[in-house]
């Protein structure tokens, strides 16, 4: 219930902020409408080119980020956003930026093609907040969307080129702006309004931070388009108030989608961390607790108390030791304990009874990422446990360092060794290989009967 209250308060705070923003932008627009002399345009061709390029790059980045989100989560919302913003970026590059790079005026047919392309782009964006489904064929859907965007933009240019001289011009003074142009700009404003309402409703129902930012960006785009409606049409060499609002809107959209990507990465990191902790408990402590439970059940069923109690005590002691090892490993990976200190404490526990002597050497300055720390800890633990329990080794050496630009971990013992068939069949070896692979490391093991065992993990650069 507290979470719902917090989400409701967050929505109320955002809603009042949105109302205030709409009020301020609406008042400014009303001022421009009431006083035509304030609706000025400025002949700044280089500034217009820079602004268009900046908006194009921002739209392209937003499209790419939305595509990345779709490839991970499969939400059709992200697919439509990817298509919409990629269409915006492509239409601006092809129809608005590239034709004027040589200092030439923008051809009328390309200008109208650009308007049509941006209408199509905002049609996709406005539809995004109203979709609820996920796509199972992510790569195929993304490819089809991008191909569809290219085809529609090509069709838009073809229609504009065919219309040719029948298209009204873009130039004029107050009052003689072509009706078709006013209608097209009004359609873009209407689509921005639909997007604003849609993302606002999504944020109210879901509390997703991305929807808040998309609604804010759509609000700025709405008033940018309304400024274009009421500002006399001008060529690509001019800058108006709407251009500044449009630039600001795409900056807001870029920030919002980037924050959503970072939030998704954090969520996946949390899920991976939970899965890793669960694996640690399953692979270690749970096995010993199962043995304790089994021996307790044997006592209840009339097993020999003298023999079973000994086994029960051994299982309980092993579970207690494994719990210590797990705490050391997890605390080192979480950053609450230095990795080298945790590993040295583990070695102290292992060698306390004098059955195995371990020489541990960790090179100064060597750095391991959190995911590497836990896996290296477990690989070393598995290697030393095998040396002690199965190989009857008396001495073992553990080295963690760097050579020739590569970080390495080696565990060498003087035990009985194994032959190749026994090594291939061992579950412990499979676990170590899997752990090394999970952190992008290479794994190699060499063992000869009577000559001990050596394993090496080479970590990514």
What does this structure look like?
This protein has 461 residues and is α+β, with helices and mostly antiparallel strands. The chain contains 13 helices and seven strands. It has helices at 2-34, 45-73, 76-97, 108-127, 138-163, 179-206, 209-230, 241-300, 305-334, 339-350, 370-389, 420-425, 427-438; strands at residues 42-43, 238-239, 357-362, 395-403, 406-413, 442-447, 453-459. The strands form two sheets. Strands 3-4-5-7-6 form a five-stranded mixed sheet, covered by helices on one side. Strands 1-2 form a two-stranded antiparallel sheet. α11 links the parallel β3 (357-362) and β4. The protein is elongated and about 100 Å long. The protein starts with a helix and ends with a strand. The relative contact order is 0.07.
In summary, what is this structure?
This protein has helices spanning 2-34, 45-73, 76-97, 108-127, 138-163, 179-206, 209-230, 241-300, 305-334, 339-350, 370-389, 420-425, 427-438; strands spanning 42-43, 238-239, 357-362, 395-403, 406-413, 442-447, 453-459. It is an alpha+beta fold and 461 residues long.
